[in-house]
Amino acid sequence: MRRILIINPITSKEFDNMTKEYLEKIKDPCTQIECVSIKKGPASIETFYDEAFAQPEILKVADRYKDKCDAIVVDCFADPGLYAIRELVDIPVIGPAEASMVVATMLGHKFAVISTMRNSGPWTELQAMAYGLSNRMAAAIGIDIPVLELSKDPKKTAGYIVKAAKEIIQHKGAEVIILGCTGMVSVAEMVKQELDVPLIEPLATSLKVAEMMIDLKLRHSKLGLYMAPEKGKIVGY
């Protein structure tokens, strides 16, 4: 039995049930999923400020569960705390943005990311640079719908995404579309039906990458980028 922890890095508890219900339908029968939200921090992550307040609580959750699970998925396209968690634990830690971008490069030459809010485009560009994939990204944009409103009118959200995707495919040469927010799970199927290119939903992709890494007995190297943290240096937490 594989045990995978899904860390919801926000305080909005409604995403726990939505996430678990969604992943239960696509997980392998031998995978057990547990979804946990942080207790203190942002209601959603839409700015670097939000992300900064989420990270200490994300690390607390990871530390608490590191010996109780076989892999961790951070349920946010910002991949908050990704590198720090990898230093903290000795199991695979998957970030939806990194996983989705890497998978996208195997499906087409150029991918595009459609997320929320105007700042998500430049933010995603920074992520692609960090992951060494800038030359494979055709475009990154945000639709004008906040994270917490994505599921309020699914048809409206899907319509915005489809319109943006078709424009990017036509004018930017995108061959793969990535949904740039794990909160878009409720509209992923609607969007997929309207596009003629592969659509990557990042949460499902992260789960499947986590299952693969567990099966292959892979974990992150600690010989270079990642180092075991010195917990004694941290004061006040």
Give a verbal description of the structure.
The chain has 8 helices and 8 strands. With 237 residues, the chain is of the alpha/beta class. The protein has 2 domains: 2-96 and 205-233, Rossmann fold; 97-201, Rossmann fold, CATH 3.40.50. A 4-stranded parallel sheet has the order 2-1-3-4, with helices on both faces. Strand 3, helix 3 and strand 4 form a beta-alpha-beta unit. Helix 4 crosses helix 8 and helix 6 packs across helix 7. It is globular.
SSE layout and pairings?
Layout: E1 2-8, H1 14-26, E2 31-37, H2 48-65, E3 71-74, H3 82-88, E4 93-94, H4 96-104, E5 111-116, H5 120-130, E6 137-143, H6 154-172, E7 176-179, H7 188-194, E8 199-200, H8 202-215
Parallel strand pairs: 1-2, 1-3, 3-4, 5-6, 5-7, 7-8
Helix pairs in contact: 4-8, 6-7
